Amino acid sequence: MKKFLRYADIITLLAASLGLLLQAWIFRGGTDENGLYPAGHPAWILTWILSAAVLIFIWLLTRQVGNNRSYKDNFPPSLLACLGHICAAFAIGQTAIQQMTNGALWLDTLAGIAGLLSAPALLYGAYCRFTGKQPFFICYMLPCVFFALYVFYLGREVGGEPETVRYLVRFFATLALIPACYQIWGFCVGSGERTHCLFWCFLAGYLCIVSVPSGGHGTMYLLLGIWMLTGPCVLKYLPRRKAAVVLPEPEVAAAEATQPEVPVTLEETFPDPSEPQPSAPEQPSEPEPELDPDAIIADILKQIDSRVE
């Protein structure tokens, strides 16, 4: 599956476009006299078959992608990722203004505040993606908080809907955006996981694009889907860098012993006599033996005895 990794964003985009067309087929046909969409619509069944296949494909594709946690290695400068962040900032900011204006509960106001703070944070993230600079973790923490609050808002909004076809895909898309932002957030603090980041970003991007025709905020989900497909980790196998190996002293000595000898020059072999030469070190003299008077007298007596005889 490694050979498909570099094309993962294009494959996911094509699958999401097909799912979008299937969803548009459902809503294009309209409702019956009871205001309901046809039960067991073939496009609805095909949507879930396609979604299951995409889920399995993304899961298999992101199993072996390397374990490098460096932000600079995983998020190099990218104009496309910068534009994706700008799209996300616009989508979240517009939705936050609508919630602040039309919301009647404190939850709407709280989600709106989180969205208004997320928009400039993502704009700063766009600048960092363009320059390759590592952003502050708050750039992705605020969107993560916004989507977590927006899930509760969405649950209250669609709680009275009679059919799951109207909201289920975008509900799943909002849920997938939370761990996707969380995983990118992890790289900003040095604890990211490439496998989890790529999986959640591609899954969230697919679900966001598929959910465009299903109800309100279609533009927001389209822009968020573009953000997810253009902003994940670099699409190649990226293992962790190995640290420099320090050899112990015996191995260092062995390595120095294997180094080639430096050739001796002619000047070193025959030095210039005009230059002062270092004197040879003096050799220690052997100590003179001590004289033993008894031994000398005994030797003289032996010589006298030999002559007398």
Please compute the radius of gyration using only Cα atoms.
40 Å
Low-pLDDT runs:
264-270
Task: List the total number of helices.
Answer: 13
| Global structural class | mainly alpha
Q: How much helicity do the residues have?
A: 55-70%
Element-by-element helix/strand order: HHHHHHHHHHHHH
Strand count: 0
Classify the beta-strand content into a percent band. Answer: under 5%
Biggest sheet character: none
What would the principal axes of the Cα set say about the shape?
elongated
End-to-end gap: 116 Å
Average pLDDT number: 82
Features:
309 residues, 64% helix, 13 helices, mainly alpha, elongated
What does this structure look like?
There is one protein chain. This protein has 309 residues and is mainly alpha-helical. Helices cover 64% and strands 0% of the residues. It contains 13 helices and no strands. Helix 5 runs antiparallel to helix 6 (106-131). The longest helix has 26 residues, at 106-131. The chain is elongated. Mean pLDDT is 82; it is low at 264-270.
Topology summary:
Layout: H1 2-5, H2 8-28, H3 42-61, H4 71-74, H5 79-102, H6 106-131, H7 138-157, H8 168-188, H9 194-210, H10 218-230, H11 249-257, H12 266-269, H13 293-308
Helix pairs in contact: 2-3, 2-9, 3-9, 5-6, 5-10, 6-7, 7-8, 8-9, 9-10
Q: In a few lines, what is going on in this structure?
A:
The chain is mostly helical and 309 residues long. It has helices spanning 2-5, 8-28, 42-61, 71-74, 79-102, 106-131, 138-157, 168-188, 194-210, 218-230, 249-257, 266-269, 293-308.
